[in-house]
Amino acid sequence: MTMTAFQTAIQESPALPRGFSSSDAAAVARRVYLAPAGLATGAAARALVGGGRGRPLAGRTDLAFGLVAVLVRRDGGGASLTVVDEPTLTAWGRDCGEGVAAHVAATLDRLAAARPDFAGLPMDRPHIMGILNVTPDSFSDGGDRFDPAVAIAAGTAMLEAGATILDVGGESTRPGALAVPPEEEIRRVVPVVRALAERGACVSIDTRNAATMAAAVAAGARIVNDVTALTWDAEALPTVARLRVPVVLMHIQGEPQTMQQAPVYDVAPLDVADWLAERVAAAEAAGVARENLCLDPGIGFGKTVDHNLEVLAWSGLLHGFGLPLLLGVSRKSFIGRLSAQEPPKERLPGTIAADQAGLDRGFQILRVHDVAEARQACALWRGLALA
User: How many other C-beta atoms can be found within 10 angstroms of the C-beta atom of residue 342?
Assistant: First the structure.
């Protein structure tokens, strides 16, 4: 079995590195990364927290962590990895100086803190976001619901099957997809958004265009879900700030037309975290309230199969932002590439397996095509996690 770039870049170390110190908070944050480790569920999680040997993950009662994985970027590339308990980590932070100590303490607190409600939904439990593509060319279901009446009926069925969010999109962002003019995108999505919102649904608008964001919110959408984290359209960031709506910021390298043409990272999970940190800072600077932010690591967007696996495996790093996390793996090509090259609609088992991995790592929102199946799998995971 060949080593991945990530495995080659990571140097496991029995002890935390010495001699690192900085008073620059931003420099420390781009050098030292913490991820929850020693994860436990159910009675084991309660025993960890109750015995003072661990903390809840994201304020949950069904997940806790007793150890912390510490990744420290090395000069020249790559990172060292050490897994320690909290007292050891805290002592190391003090030895490194005030800047590192403050970063360690603040990140530990964010890993453990309860997440604010997102779009009125409690983040202390998992939620299902149903994918409702009103497009002729999406990679998995293009054309299936291009007729607004069909899309509205499908959205209603998703609600009945257990979705708590419906993500309506009028432009495919599959690899190689061409941009759709906002006017056409608005024509496709607004009737669907309005009808489902009038039925009481929590609707998300999946778009990178500011004009579509504004039109969909006016029609009743409660969430903006932008695969470019408000970078595609110069008006997107001020539009979301003005509308004061919750927004999902997703990581992407490149753009849909070119993103799968040899994407490159130093350490993919750390690079993704850095990019999202910049987008969170930009959103806050523009006036978007922090409690209105949710993060998506962007599985399949400018990433190889190995990158996708690395980012998902180390997605616990993103809990350090103290924000809700969304996972979108449904029917994606890396599932088929790891298996037997199944076409998109035959990737449900792999989708459920990846979603379960996300639940194990504390994701609060799963974005899926197959709502009933995801709800059932999620219910089983939740039952086991609380046992």
Answer: 16
